[in-house]
Task: structure prediction
Amino acid sequence: MIKFKSLLLILIPLSLVFSCSNSEELFIDSSNSHIVYNGRVDTSQSHGVDLYWSGTSIQFNFEGTSISAVFKDESGDNYYNVILDKDSLFILRPSTTKKYYELASELPKGKHTIEIFKRTEWNRGKTSFYGFQIKGNPKLVSKQTPSQRKIEFYGNSITAGYAVEDFSGKDSPDSTYTNNYLSYAAITARYFQADYHCICKSGIGITVSWFPQIMPEIYDRLNPLDPESKWDFSSYSPDIVVINLLQNDSWIVNLPENEEFKMRFEDKAPDDVFIIKAYQEFVAQLRNHYPKANIICSLGSMDAAKEGSKWIEYIKTAVANLNDKKMYTHFMPYIEASAHPSIQDQKEMANSLIQFIEKTIDW
Result:
């Protein structure tokens, strides 16, 4: 019987991790070419790689009877889905101490695949990953054939999967309940078997956010908290870019006493022309980075996406102004609720987006 570890994981002294030299144990450093990273992952470190953004993942194929990994988390408040052979799943919460975690044991003979997927957002701090250890006649297995499709999302809490597993409907901010894996974005990427990048943050907007940064200021960062940390756009060229923003703007522009309102607009709310121009400029920046991509300007599924919403019209106008044959609008259905989208809501949004892509885009 396969033993797949629960949230309370076994700790092994670090000295064992780096002393694997016999045929029964094999340590695979994080820089090994057999490991596949998805998302904006910082591989420039001399030891280990750093993960920041929601939906970043680590994938690895191997043979052996058990597999473990070495992690250190900045805050101890990040959560990861650990998926074995695209089936069994448990949640990993790395601690702030560099530790060795056994992920699965008593595995049957043959090829296995492990995926470690970041559920949480970058405000919970970065996670450093150092490598895998395999035991029991360990062997490296060729990584999967690269996907023929690439997709990238820019969004807010809806795209992040904020509170998607808070079944009380209270929208708890505890990171336990956020799960990007269950967001419409990740569901869509898996449906098309596409490589997946997700640039998102709960509360973020185009013109104003619930915190100081706005998307046009951070969209091009590797480390979202470091203005000097720039992402190399040439390293990932998506076939499709999906933008789902303006939900937060739609609230804050009506709150003149809000500190972020004051910082961005002083004492006067932005007019229609200002908002359309800001959205248009952001989309144009993405087009500049991705001259061949199909860009879908979307909105949904919260109240900014209601029928007759002026925010839908802002997006339509901005896209019309850009006059780009590979730029589209698609508005996911408004789902009336008192909290963020549920698991079922996210599935409905994904179905809407998937159907639109299948009917509209040849990729």
